Structures are given as structure tokens and as C-alpha cells.
Amino acid sequence: MMGLDNRFNKVLLLTMSLGLLPLLYGCSQPQVDPSQQAIPTNSDQWQKTLGDTFERLPEADRKLLSRYMLRMKLSSAYESGAMPRITIKQALTQQREYERLHPNNPTGKKSPIVISQQIETANNLNYPVDLLPVKTSESDSLNQVKLQFVLSNHGKVAIKSFKGTLTMQEKRLTKNKRFNVPLTQFEPPIAPEQAGKIVIESSIEDINVMRAIKNNKGVNIEITEGTIVLVDGQEIEFDELLEK
Prior knowledge:
Number of strands: 9
Low-confidence stretches: 11-29
Order of helices and strands: HEHHHEHHEEEEEHEE
Helix content: 25-40%
Largest sheet: 4 strands, antiparallel
Oligomer: single chain
Number of helices: 7
């Protein structure tokens, strides 16, 4: 009987041990909430570190997190190397709020038009154009009038040539006046902090335009289309689409 009891006790202990295995395994392998995973501040590690965690997120959260990551890569924080330390849950919260405030630009992508406008403004500051007063009479209003513009070079390289469109703005004009400039070669090239003349002939039919060019006070001239070629071969482009 003693042998039988010993065998029974061993079987009982084994059964109890096997029954405890799932419980012990469950305690040693807790299910971690994927939203609590920290996002590496080094974006190069995102794919490696977040791959498995990303797959465990609901589909809507995966898309939201993808837009957050893209927005971060397009941000100044990414450019400066100062990515924020944040969890996925915090990132999702921030992205939802950002998209609520910017429904048409969820990734914070910079508009190419805005960037181009900034370049255009910088170009016009570096290469301003002024109109020299024109001596003419009222009878010249339907005739070809010789106009002289002064192109200044505030860049670092001499200007070899210019071809494009100049636009004149003046408060009395209901519509800006455009002047087409054929290819103009500067001999000698316009050195930095120097200026050169652009001479063209244009038909002036608007009496207000005629008055404006006779007295250039309050007149603003800008390059709205065309190309300035520098002596080193570099081309400075101006785009008229930005003026519409």
C-alpha cells in the first residue's frame, strides 16, 4: 500500500505542476500595451525599434502614427537633430490635435509655393530694379517710349545677362504694367554692389502709366519672370506664377 500511495502522490504533484505552468508563463510574459512604447529620438532607429510594436496597433492608429512620424521628419526639430522623447500614446494624442487644427495639412508639409515665394523675395532683394524718370509729353502716350531701368547687384557674383519681365506697381494703376525685356548682355558684367542699365522701348497707352514713368516716385519695379545669368554660370530664376 505504501508503494501505491507514493505513486499517487507523485502523479498528483506532477499534475499540479503542469497546471501551474500556464499561470507561471503568463506571469513571466505580461502583455505590454504597445502605445506605451517609447519612440526613439533617433529617427533612423524607428523601423528597427518599432517594427513589431507598430504591427500590434489598430489600423487607424498605425496610419495616425505614420503621419506623426512623417510630420516629425518634415519639422525643424528633425533638421536640428532635436527630436522629442515621447511615447506612441502621446504621439497619437498630439497628432490627433494637430490634425484637428490643420485638417488640410496633416503632415505639416511645407507648401512649395510658400518656399518659392520666399526665394522670389530674396532674389528681388538681391537684384532690385529701379526706373529712371522719363522725359516725355502727353502726345507720346500712343508712341514707343524709351525706358531705362537700373539693375543693382547685391549678390556676391557679377551679373552677365538678364532676360525676362519687369512689372511696375503704382497706387494709381488699376492694373500692374508689364515690360518685356529681351536678352540684355552687360558689358562689363555688373560687379557686386554695382548697377547696370536695362534699356527697352515700350508702347504706353494708359495715361496713368505715362504719368507714373514721368515721375517715378511711388513706383515699384520687380522682376516677375526671367533669368539672371551670373559670370560663374549660375542662373537666378524668377517665376511669374507667384505674382498671380
